[in-house]
Amino acid sequence: MFVGIAVLGLLGAGAYLYSRAHGTQPAAAALAPKTPELFLPLDPAFVVNFQDQDSTRYLQVGVTVMTHDASAVQAMKESDPVIRNALVMLFSSQTYAGLSDIAGKKKLQAEALEAVRKIVADRTGKPDVDALYFTSFVMQ
Fold first, then answer.
1. Which sequence spans correspond to the domains of the chain?
2. Cα separation, 128 vs 126, whole angstroms
3. Distance, CA of 27 to chain centre
4. What main location does UniProt list (predicted)?
5. More confident residue, 29 or 57
6. The pTM is what?
7. 53-89 confidence digits (pLDDT tens)
């Protein structure tokens, strides 16, 4: 009986050491609650014009940013004019041909996210913006 208890104890210790060595975490740590996603729509939608060969084109873009950090939301609210200016400049520098396919839209989305992250990082010291979504996208 004593041998059975000793073997059981050794198996438990071995399992614990194995899990620590291979980076697996106990079930309680794996179930730790995630911080909620916080969405901030940048209203009103952006409306810019840009040149396309011989005509003027218009772009209307609805933008919402997502973070998990409430301080980032506050920083974005306080920096709204700076963020809006950066995005207006970015959107108005586009070409119709560059935005005509999904790859161009994704590239613009990534550039807009980086612009917002830079502004938030300048204010808070960390770029706590996880995503930027186009909630509407109209070209004319």
1. 1-32, 38-139
2. 6
3. 28
4. membrane
5. 57
6. 0.74
7. 878 899 999 999 999 999 999 999 999 999 999 999 9
Instruction: Kindly state the tokens that stand for 57.
Output: 């084109």
* Six token digits for residue 87: 């995005």
Instruction: Name the phi and psi angles at 84, rounded to 5.
Output: -60, -40
Task: Name the CA radius of gyration of the chain, rounded.
Answer: 25
* Helix, strand, coil in percent for the chain, rounding step 5: 50, 25, 20
Which residues lie below 8 Å from residue 113, measured CB to CB, with a gap of 6+? 65, 129, 131, 132
Please say whether the beta carbons of 127 and 65 come within 8 A. Answer: no
User: Any idea what the Cα angle at residue 84 is, between residues 55 and 75, rounded to 5°?
Assistant: 165
- pLDDT digits 0-9 by tens, 112-126: 999 999 999 999 999
Residue 23 has pLDDT above 70, yes or no: no
Mean pLDDT of all residues in 1-29 = 47
Instruction: For the domain covering 38-139, report its CATH number.
Output: 3.30.479.30
